[in-house]
Amino acid sequence: MSNRKGIIIVVSGFSGAGKGTLMKALIARYPGYALSVSATTRDPRPGEENGREYFFVSNEEFEKLIKENGLIEHAGYVNHYYGTPRKFVEDKLSQGIDVILEIEIQGALQIKEQYPDAVLLFVMPPSAKELEKRLRGRGTETDEVITQRLKRAKEESIGIEKYDYIVVNDDLEECVDRLHQIIGAAHQSPMRNLELIDTIRNELNEL
Question: Which of 87, 109, 110 minimizes the C-alpha distance to 99?
Fold first, then answer.
């Protein structure tokens, strides 16, 4: 449909659940998606580039963005700030492109308040043991940080019920297809097709 409006897809999940890999695979396989690039005050990991995985900024730059209302949401996570730039998201939505925001639970709920029709997805590992294995398999973080991330996962598990859908990331290929199907179904909900409903009603009244 030419008048198709983009919707916000918020993807959260425990650190190590594989949500970043999942999002990249989804965008590579299916057209019509844009992955929002978040701003963060943490240092880049090996292989990451500024403006691709994240906009890496200082604490001062981040606080300026907050003051100027340049972020849709922001939150602290393991001693760093993360936030979603507003302009990028709203430009893409107006072009009919679905914008994927990969953010944690606190920010996800902020998004839902501002955009009630946003779709909230939570990516789950097959098990807690598998989550720990994936975190250690990265080889980029100390035992102390891994312990922090597992503790945070325990806290985040309390809020999963507030999401619209959960997706278990066991097999990557199958998980990508399930995500695409969920988002496609969300576009067909009555609340996202009010113009079409009104048009049909008016046409019926004229018969």
Answer: 87
